[in-house]
Amino acid sequence: MSYLFVREDREYLLAPGDTLESDLGILEVPEDVEPGDTVETHLDTEFRVRKLRGPDLFNHLERTGAPMMPRDIGLVVGQTGLQSGDRVLDAGTGTGVLSAYLGRIGARVTTYEADADFADVARENMALAGVEEAVEVRHGDVTDELPTLTEGERFDVLTLDTADAAAVVERAPDLLVSGGYVAVYSPFVEQAREAVEAARAAGLEDPETLETIQREMDVGDRGTRPSTRGVGHTGYLTFARRE
User: Fold this and answer.
1) pLDDT tens readout for residues 100-116
2) What is the mean pLDDT of the chain?
3) Could you confirm whether the keyword Lyase appears in this record (predicted)?
4) 87-91 and 108-113 as β-strands: parallel, antiparallel, unpaired?
5) pLDDT tens, position by position, 36-63
């Protein structure tokens, strides 16, 4: 189990028994360290120990591409009602941030990654997040596995972050339990349209696409107003439900 070791504007991800060497001194992490503890380097520099939470995973897991942002993941969970015990089929693992989030709320995730190296990194990240028992990372293209998957256990939610997501949406009725959801993350609006059209053709209920935008508020002495630092767009999320 790894924890965050925090001091002012610095934070490090370390496990019991690890050693950190920095300009703040040498930190020997005790084997019995727990969240809430304070530990010191040999130069008496103090670090606070914190338990890892979702946003920390986003900041500290090894990156193999552009992962979904926490705001997008929150929308997936909120729109689908994803909960502990749900079975999730995920495609386009990448770094594995989404799979890690879902595993940490109690879902059982089977995730496919087409790049073998990315899949290896994702497995390491699942171990770091403490969800290696909840998340199975498979190397391969999920579209190649559809004949086998559609003959097996049904899933409560499909989460797709791949260019060929529409091909999986077409088979969603054969993959989902009654009332189950499909959620497609698309960086381009053309892909979102393809997902909606595939959902309609498959007879899924209420397909809709939402753009995720988040604006930070600047709070100052003169007043409070939206930040002018960009519009905060990340992507498009398409949702549909099996009857």
Assistant:
1) 999 999 999 999 999 99
2) 93
3) no
4) parallel
5) 999 999 999 999 999 988 888 888 888 8
Q: What is the mean pLDDT of residues 9-19?
A: 91
Give the confidence band of 191 by pLDDT, cuts at 50, 70, 90: very high
Domains of the chain: 3-51 (3.10.330.20), 56-215+223-241 (3.40.50.150)
Buried b (16+ CB within 10 A) or exposed e, 114-151: beeebbebbbebbebbebbebbbbbbeebbebbeebee
